[in-house]
Amino acid sequence: MKLPYNQHKSWAGSVSMFICGFLISIGMLYYYSALGYFQLEWTWTFQRVALVALVATVVESLPITEIVDDNITVPLVSMVVSMLSFGY
Q1: Mean pLDDT value across the chain
Q2: More confident residue, 45 or 87
Q3: Which of 61, 55, 74, 59 is nearest to 2 (CA)?
Q4: Residues 6 or more apart whose Cβ sits within 8 Å of residue 29
Q5: DSSP code string of 42-66
Q6: Is 28 a residue whose pLDDT tops 80?
Q7: Structure confidence at residue 60 (pLDDT)
Q8: Per DSSP, what are the bridge partners of residue 6?
Q9: CB atoms within 10 A of CB 88
Q10: Burial class of residue 73 in the structure, from the number of CB atoms within 10 Å of its CB (0-12 exposed, 13-18 middle, 19+ buried)
Q11: What does the alpha-carbon distance between residue 44 and residue 16 come to, in Å, rounded to a whole number?
Q12: Do 14 and 60 contact (CB within 8 A), yes or no?
């Protein structure tokens, strides 16, 4: 099933992007936390990572590929949202 506002993107792809982005981000944060680089409060971290993954998924699904590639917008928006939500 295609997204109603972007016929080039599908619901399955968007759900996959959210889930994979969320799980990979949590895995990386856990890895670096286990190595002692920083300490995290995990309930708070899960909420922030879910927010970042959701925003990245929404940006990736927008029909703006002709204007700017989503390989540029997704990392940029993810960095900004991460910096604002985590405060680093």
Answers
A1: 95
A2: 45
A3: 61
A4: 40, 45, 49
A5: HHHHHHHHHHHHHHHHHHHHSS-TT
A6: yes
A7: 96
A8: 3
A9: 7
A10: middle
A11: 23
A12: yes
Q: According to the model, what pLDDT value does residue 81 have?
A: 97
The residue with tokens 């506002």 is 5
Q: What is the pLDDT of residues 55-84, one digit of tens each?
A: 999 999 999 988 999 999 999 999 999 999
Residue with tokens 């928006």: 77
Cβ contacts of 13-19, under 8 Å, gap ≥ 24: 14/57, 14/60, 14/61, 17/53, 17/56, 17/57, 17/60, 18/53, 18/54, 18/56, 18/57
Residue 87 has pLDDT above 90, yes or no: no
